[in-house]
Model the fold of this input.
Amino acid sequence: MSEAQVVAATDAELGLELSDKPRGMFVRAWEVFAENKLALAGLGFIVFILLFCFVGPHIYVTNQVNTDLIDTLCTPSGQHLLGCDDVGYDELGRLMAGGADTTPAEGTAPAEATAGGEDDGSAADASPITGIGTPGTGSPAAQEDS
Done:
């Protein structure tokens, strides 16, 4: 077949035919998202962490309130899958409890930092009293010009 010949494809073969019911915005977004294998792996990791932190303590029940000095620094076993720490707490239970405590804070920190303009060098970081950091009020560059 020469380069001048063009093979015509129908709309049905290309998947361009109009359907009776249009797909929703979220369905189309999921289709695009699902094409990226690394994004799917990241989503799977996030789901794993959430299940580990919030469902795991209901399946692997440990006492994280009272110390157990008999189990101090115990080695991994069937009763304590990752062993125990220096005061007898089960290490796997501590990981689950710690993750459940900090995961909500980690989820809201980016939104709080964005809303507050924290640590990005913006004018929101300026001191309301001295004005240092706000261009034109207390910055060294503004003081030199006057």
About this structure: Confidence is low (pLDDT under 50) at residues 123-134. The two ends are 77 Å apart (CA to CA). The first helix runs from residue 11 to 14.
